[in-house]
Design a protein that fits this description.
Number of strands: 8
Strand order of the largest sheet: 1-3-6-5
Low-confidence stretches: 30-38
Order of helices and strands: HEEEEEEEEHHHHHHHHHHHH
Oligomer: single chain
Structural class: alpha+beta
Largest sheet: 4 strands, antiparallel
Helix content: 55-70%
Mean pLDDT: 76
Number of helices: 13
Radius of gyration: 31 Å
Strand content: 5-15%
Shape: elongated
Length: 439
């Protein structure tokens, strides 16, 4: 091969690469041109969110677009329609100056409960294209008593206490009525158990009902209550979902009073199931006034997950309370180890549900998955865990769970090792086991 043919050979070898490179550049140019031509001022975020639920009516709409929008000539147009399709407020609504040229701040009138549709038209300052769209949001009622009114504030301490007392009362009732049956099979042969159980159900139902009814009363009596607000006005301003609790807790308390003073040795099984369902149903009032119910997306899924979390934790907590009553009131029988193992199996399942739903609920509050997709596994993704109030409370709850989980694992291991001899061994091993069981 002579030297003159070498350049020709190289050019021949490189020709496919030149053609491929030229094709890629042309295709990339076309894609970029298409993207540039289709990049309009689209709505990227809104507050209240699209298809979202807010517990208290907003006084302003915030709409963020992907491009800067023209402020005048032509001016943006935003209208608000109610459920009947009638215009709410002026048409168009007044727009307030915003620091970000891509954001519109729109003043709106006072809104009642219901669903509202926002219709908007804007012109892009980048390409001059005009774009229109609409979205809806729902106003679900007033804000729950003592709840934080904005992300920068904390809920009132008394409101946190009343919600926790409501949860604890419902948990005691549900756990004693449902999981108590796994410990005491022949309740009629255990008069002390029946007496203590009826007292526990009455105490739990009264605790939940009184804590719930205290919320609007404390809200009304507080010095920072709205000027001139009456008790009736305070009750009328409560969100509709709040009423789930008293509506179910009142018949539960009546049932508990009848059982406590009827001198019956035990509550009939249908009545026990009804009482447990009323107690667990009252937890729906807590879920529907939580962060889960205020989500703009996946709201139904978030509510279901939060409710499952509350129910599993309530049954687990109430079951532990029933376990304490059983350990104090039980008479000597030969099935102590067997019944404790049955309870352990149930509690293990409940703990697993509570753990999984708790982590999922955390994912709804902190969008870890989306951030990991965008930023990868970095420390900043998990910063909300130690930089926010909710994250710190979550870490504290996890630390608290370590103690009962460790004790439960130790008890389960000991019972599994004892096997058939569990009953006799437990009878001769009351000291250390009973102390850790109490813990």
């Amino acid at each position: 091969m002579n030297s003159a043919s070498l350049p020709s050979l190289v050019a021949l070898r490189l020709r496919p690469f030149f053609l491929a490179g030229t094709f890629i550049l042309v295709a990339l140019s076309l894609v970029l041109t298409t993207l540039s031509a289709s990049a309009h001022a689209e709505l990227s975020r809104s507050d209240p969110p699209a298809d979202g639920l807010v517990v208290t009516a907003p006084d302003r709409l915030e709409m963020s677009f992907t491009e800067e929008v023209v402020r005048d000539s032509p001016a943006p147009s935003v209208t608000l329609l109610d459920e009947a399709g009638a215009t709410t407020g002026s048409n168009p609504l007044p727009i307030v100056e915003a620091d970000d040229p891509r954001t519109l701040l729109v003043d709106i009138p006072d809104l009642d409960r219901g669903t509202y549709t926002v219709s908007w038209t804007v012109t892009s300052a980048t390409d001059g294209h005009t774009l229109s769209g609409s979205y809806a949001f729902r106003v679900g009622g007033g804000i729950p008593p003592g709840l934080a009114a904005s992300p920068d504030t904390l809920p009132a301490a008394w409101a946190v206490a009343t919600r926790w007392l409501t949860f604890l009362g419902a948990a005691i009732v549900a756990g004693v009525l449902l999981l108590g049956a796994t410990l005491v099979i022949d309740a009629e042969k255990q008069p002390r158990w029946s007496l203590w159980k009826s007292r526990a159900v009455l105490t739990g139902s009264l605790l939940a009902l009184l804590a719930t009814m205290a919320e609007p009363l404390v809200q009304w009596l507080r010095a920072d209550n709205a000027a001139g607000a009456s008790l009736r006005g305070t009750l009328e301003s409560l969100p509709e979902a709040w009423w789930w609790r008293p509506v179910l807790l009142v018949p539960l308390t009546v049932l508990a009073l009848i059982n406590a003073f009827s001198r019956r040795e035990s509550l009939p099984r249908p009545a026990a199931w009804l009482g447990a369902l009323l107690a667990l149903g009252a937890l729906l009032g807590l879920t529907l006034t939580s962060h889960a119910a205020g989500r703009g997306s996946y709201r139904t899924l978030a509510i279901v997950i939060d409710l499952l979390h509350q129910v599993s934790v309530a049954l687990w907590t109430g079951g532990l309370f029933a376990l304490v009553i059983w350990s104090v009131t039980r008479t000597g029988d030969g099935e102590a180890g067997l019944r404790l193992k049955r309870f352990s199996n149930t509690a293990l399942v409940l703990f697993g549900i509570a753990l999984v739903t708790g982590l999922a609920n955390t994912g709804f509050i902190f969008p870890f998955i989306n951030q990991i997709r965008e930023d990868g596994w970095s420390t900043s993704v998990f910063e909300p865990l130690w930089t926010s109030n909710y994250g710190l409370i979550l870490l504290l709850k996890l630390l608290v769970l370590v103690v009962p989980l460790a004790l439960a694992a130790w008890h389960r291991n000991r019972i599994a090792r004892l096997g058939a001899s569990a009953a006799s061994a437990l009878a001769t091993w009351p000291g250390r086991f009973r102390r850790t069981l109490g813990a």
